[in-house]
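Q: What structure does this chain adopt?
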Amino acid sequence: MADIDQIMQHDHEHLDQLLEQSAHAVSAGAWREAAHLLEVFRHGLVDGHMMVEESTLFPAFERKEGDDDHPLTTLLRKGHQDLRIFFEEMAEAIQDQDAESFDDLLSTVQTILKQHDAKEETELYPYLAAALPDRGEAAGKRILACEAETPS
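A:
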């Protein structure tokens, strides 16, 4: 199995592709497909990626740094909260078949994700394999299992 930093970076790329596919479906007026793809993206990010980070990776990093309230993980958790709200608003825009609102939200979300992912990939992930007792194998398996699940 790959190291946890490689798994998480791969997951970022995979999730970015799903979001882009949802955006293409909105552009084409394929609203059902857009809704489905957005839900697959949301499931993978919120129920998989973020859940693993918040339950396993952030606490391991905080233990390694000796700071339960580390500024990096505090910032990243806040980013997760903000993104969850944007995903709800994006789903509402799709439900309302409002491509303009969706595109505005998409632009904001992509900017947030680009900055958020870069922070994780440069400041968090490189230190995790050493911080986790199993070098991140269990967390990696949970991410891969979530990737394999597709909401119907």
